[in-house]
Each structure stands twice: as C-alpha cells, then as structure tokens.
Backbone:
C-alpha cells in the first residue's frame, strides 16, 4: 500500500509557483524525470517563499525534469503533515513542531521564548546548527522524514480584540492563540493559551473562542487578524516558532546525487534564505501600515515591562523544557538547551 501511495504521488501532474527569479546563466543539470508533491496550507505568503522558490529553482535548473507541486491544504491538514510524510503520501511538506510536540519534542526547543537570537540571519544560523544535530536528525528519522530548510519565522507579536492591555497584569485571563513554549510564557502572565492551527485563527477569533493571536506580522496579514483586532503589540518580540520543510526520507534517498547537490546549492543561493529574509523585511514594514489603516491601536511595552516579561517567561520556561526533555523523553535536556543558547549567543558577536 505504501509503495502504491508513493508511486501515485510521484506520477502527479505538477503546477509550479512563479515566485523568485532564477539566474539564467546557471547550467542545466541533467537527470531522470522526478515529480514531487509538497503539502502546505494557507496561501502563498512570506513564509512560503522558501519552498515556492525551491520548486521553481529545481524545475529551472533541471530543464523541467524535477518538478514539484505545492498543494495549499489539499493533501493534508497542518497537524497531519508529519503522518503523511511518514506514510509516503507525499514527498515533502511544511512542519511546525508545536503542532505535534509529542512527536518532535526536541524540535520544540526553537519555540522557546526570548532566546537571545539576533535577527533573521541569526535565527537561520541557530536553526541550521540545531536541526542538523544528530539528536534532532534521529527524531525526524522516526517519522521517515528529514529536515531540509527552515521558514525562519520572525519574532511574534499579538493582535487582540477588546480593551488593549496597559500593563502586564491586563494579560491575565486573556484567551490567546500562542503555540507551544510561547503559550507557556503567556501562562506566566495568567493568560489562557490555545494552539489553534493558523488557518483556523480567523474563525476562532471571529466567534469569540479566542481574544487574541500571536503571529509574526506576515501571518497577521495572511490570516487577516487585523480585520477583527483592536490593538497590536509592537515590541513584545516573544520568540519564533519552529516551522520549515521536511522531506520523506525514502523519496530523498532515491534521488540521483546531482539532484541532491542542487538542493544543497539552493539553500545557499540568493533564491533561498536571502529571498526568504527579504520577504519578511518587506512584511515587517508594510503590515503595520495596514494595521494603522484599519484603526488598530499600537501597544509598546516600556523597557521595564518587556524585561519583566522576559524574566518571567524566558529562562524559567527554558529550564522547564530541559527538564521535560530529560524526564519525559529521555534526552539530555540540559545539553540540548546548551546547544540552543550557545548557538544563539554566537548571533550577538
């Protein structure tokens, strides 16, 4: 059955997104015809540049012999992508570790709030160093999957309904969409976090199931929270969420070496991470303009409030996470945390 599913997916007729601009002077790499399917969700947006450009890059650099169809929510629900990859239902897809923390527990380390990471380039470097660690590689291997690239999601801010919080105590009782470790940080303020998948946030907010949502700015735009919100934070910068691209291991291993080399080349090319970062930089400027146009009130924490929140929701959450990794999952939690913090501190040098 599994071989049938893989074969059926590989035979699909593919449509390629048209983002990015691949250098015309690069040589075409010859090889067999290969067709992959990619399981995404939502719609094209800043975080999808990393895999939309990858699909275009592979098609153009192979003269159309390696093609990828990006499916927007039709192959799998967000919480089921890992299961689909494990079964070989598709060859590649977007994962967010906080959607299934019990399946990829060590991967949730990059969800930890207030890590001392400096900028998107720093986040890229920390992610690459952490996710290519053998401990993390063994974790994805349990799901017949392997890490390829990160969406390097920018630091999260909150858009909310109702009265804007004027102090940290005003967050108490707020029902907020805040994933994983960020949710635990919000609990420290007395908020009530929930891990609503991104495509369901608008409906949940509209129906009053949640009062606020934590997203990077580009996602607030993509999922239109500004249409329902009354206020937004400008400098909470709570942390990132670990999302990115996974490959089905069998599908990747079956590729000829020249295609694997192209995939490695893509990540270092201008169409890879640099284009991803540039898309975020545009959204970080343009989305607040849209907030303002829709009448949202900006909430800027003073230095003392921001420092207090980081003190309460930062290192204590890190240590709790390290203990959980050790006691519940049998990892050396302190060692994993040390990898993260050491890599993050490098970004400030």
Residues:
């Amino acid at each position: 059955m599994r071989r049938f599913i893989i074969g059926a997916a590989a035979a699909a007729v593919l449509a390629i997104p048209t983002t990015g601009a691949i250098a015309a002077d690069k040589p075409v790499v010859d090889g067999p015809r290969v067709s992959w399917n990619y399981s995404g969700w939502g719609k094209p947006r800043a975080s999808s540049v990393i895999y939309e450009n990858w699909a275009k890059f592979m098609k153009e650099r192979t003269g159309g012999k390696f093609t990828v169809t990006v499916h927007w929510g039709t192959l799998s629900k967000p919480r089921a992508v890992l299961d689909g990859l494990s079964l070989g239902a598709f060859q590649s897809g977007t994962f967010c570790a906080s959607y299934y923390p019990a399946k990829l527990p060590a991967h949730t380390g990059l969800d930890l709030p207030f890590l001392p990471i400096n900028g998107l380039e720093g986040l890229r470097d920390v992610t690459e160093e952490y996710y290519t660690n053998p401990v993390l590689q063994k974790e994805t291997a349990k799901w017949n999957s392997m890490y390829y690239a990160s969406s390097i999601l920018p630091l999260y801010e909150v858009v909310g309904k109702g009265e804007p919080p004027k102090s940290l105590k005003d967050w108490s009782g707020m029902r907020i969409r805040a994933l994983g470790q960020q949710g635990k940080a919000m609990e420290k303020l007395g908020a009530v976090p929930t891990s609503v998948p991104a495509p369901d946030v608008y409906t949940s907010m509209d129906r009053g199931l949640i009062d606020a949502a934590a997203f990077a700015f580009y996602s607030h735009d993509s999922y239109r929270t500004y249409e329902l919100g009354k206020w937004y934070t400008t400098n909470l910068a709570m942390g990132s969420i670990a999302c990115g691209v996974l490959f089905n291991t069998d599908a990747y291993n079956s590729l000829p070496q020249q295609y694997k080399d192209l995939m490695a080349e893509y990540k270092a090319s201008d169409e890879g991470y640099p284009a991803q970062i540039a898309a975020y930089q545009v959204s970080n400027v343009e989305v607040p303009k849209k907030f303002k146009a829709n009448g949202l009130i900006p909430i800027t924490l003073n230095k003392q409030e921001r420092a207090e929140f980081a003190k309460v929701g930062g290192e204590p959450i890190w240590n709790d996470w390290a203990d959980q990794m050790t006691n519940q999952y049998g990892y050396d939690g302190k060692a994993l945390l040390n990898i993260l913090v050491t890599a993050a501190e490098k970004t400030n040098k």
The CA atoms of residues 67 and 209 lie 41 Å apart. Confidence is low (pLDDT under 50) at residues 1-20. The domain at 2-22+31-152+242-281 is CATH 3.40.190.170 (D-Maltodextrin-Binding Protein; domain 2). The first strand starts at residue 34 and ends at 40.
